[in-house]
Structure formats: C-alpha cells, structure tokens
Write a structure and sequence with these properties.
This protein is of the alpha/beta class. The protein is 43% helix and 11% strand. The protein has a single domain, classed as TIM Barrel (Alpha-Beta Barrel), CATH 3.20.20.140. Strands 1, 2, 3, 4, 5 and 6 form a six-stranded parallel sheet that branches. The chain has a three-stranded parallel sheet with strand order 7-8-9. Strand 7, helix 7 and strand 8 form a beta-alpha-beta unit.
Amino acid sequence: MYRIFDFLNGSRITRDYVDKALANGVAVIHATVNNFSTIRPYPTLAEALGELAAIREHYTRLADVVRIVQRADDFAAAQRAGQLAVILGYQNVPGIGSDLKMVELFHALGVRCIQISHNQGGPYAGGCADPVDGGLTPLGRDLIAELNRYGIVVDLSHTGDRSSLEAIKASRVPVCITHANARAVCDNVRNKSDAVLDALKENGGVIGLCYLTPMVRMDGVKPSHDDFAQHVLHVRARIGSAHIGLGSDFIEGQPPERYQEFLRKPEVYGTWPWRFPIEDLADQQRFLSSLRQRGLDDSEVRGIAGENFLKVTKTILQRGEHHERDVA
C-alpha cells in the first residue's frame, strides 16, 4: 500500500473518515481553513480568524487520531502514533491586507500553507480567471518573502500564469501547486501551462494533480483512470515524476449546496455532479498501483503518492524553524 500525502482534501473530516483514510494509506492531508464552515474564497480577517478557531477546535476533539503539522518532525511523530497528519492552510491570503506582520501570527496559530490569490486576483497577484493577469505586485513580493521566512508553503493553485511565473522566481524556497492539472491535456484556466510547469521544476517545487472532474476533462463525460493518467504522464514527460504529487480535492461527506457559487462558473468548474476519475480512497490505491503498468517504476509511484510532497514540505517548514532559532 502506498503512503499518501494529499495536499488538498475537502472532505468532512470526522473520526470515521480519519479511520478510513489511515486504513487506505493516507498519511497526510491539507485542509482548507477558509472552507471549514462554509466556502469563503475571499475571507476577511475576521472570517479567517473565526474559521481558524473553529477548525482548531474541531481537530482538538480528534487529537488522539489527528496531529496538526507545525514542525517538520510532526510527520514522523504522527506516523509513529498512528495519527493522520493535517496541514492547515488557506486558499487565499487570510484578510491581512498590507499588514504583513500578521503572517507571523498565522504561523504561530499553526497555519503552514497560504495561496497568494484565488480565481480572481487581489492585492498580491492575479488569479487564474482574471481576463488579464497583471502579475505579482510589490506587496505580493513582500508577502512571499514573509511566507518564506516563516516556513509557510507558497501555494499557486488558483494563481494566474504570469503571477505564478513571477512568484516562482521571487521565492527563495520551493513553491507548491497543491491542486491543479496540466492545461496541455485539459484546457481549463485552473490548470497550469507548460511554462509554469517548467518554472516549477527549476524552483524544485511540486504540483499536486487533482481529481476534480472539470480539471481532468471539460466535455461532461465522467473521467476515467486513463484520463487522469494522461495528466500524470504529460507532467512526468515535461518536468519529471519528482515534481508530481496528489491534491485530490475529494469532497466526501460535503453537501452539494456548498458549491453553488462555484457552479455559476461552468467554464472553470464544469457542471454538477462532479464524477471523479478516482472514486474514493480505496480507488486511489488502485490507481497508484496501475501506474506501474503505465511505465512508472515503484520509486516514482511512491514519490507521486507522498514522498515528493513530504520532502518539499519538510524543506519549507525547516526554513521557518531555522528562523525561529535565529530570532531566539
């Protein structure tokens, strides 16, 4: 069984789900703070802090089976304890405006991943659905420097192409695209161009390939394992398997009404119901095993399943730990 690091899982995380995830090889998930109670793509500071308080309380009640990742060695500690490691992150900058000293506060509260823009851009960078991506702003450059300093993953999943390229160049450590696919395979603005993939390779980052239906194919047909494998094979051929991970975007246990706002943008999100090419946690293992028949060796599959994201995330978190020691 492959050990899985899922860098975006939107499922309702109950005790039963944790047990099922662990039983199916899932060791780490990234949970979106601003989507915990309800989906807030553009959270205010008050909303961002309120959701952070709520999600921390939720995981406190699951503390015997869940460990919130704050340091690089928490991954190994969770494994030894038989716990699911959970990374807390935002799919947009959490309402701090130009007050970048707030990055330290969010770090102190356990946040370890922040996306610098959503579909529509903001004060830091352009979004993937903007008619024109104006690129990384001066404030965005300063934000990336702060995220680097504190060991918080810079996520570019919903960020526009120009902004992504400029953010990758600006970052002093590897960045991550936690959940997106290859635009050369599926022409969805949420997916990443070959130019962004090339830059990601140079930066040493990793892209988490995503099961969300309209990012695998846009014609309304339920994607198959073969359809999703085309994204794996394209990215592997373009930048190598060492830069591939998983960002499932699973939404098990979530009611469809949570996604009504997104469904008003069929050019990005397709139509409901989303019928994923990977059916569930057990099917995820079946798909990974099938990659051996598609020409990948076992070390490559282990990397895609979890080792690639584990390596890069530990590198980023350790930078923040070095900063803590320097300050102390």
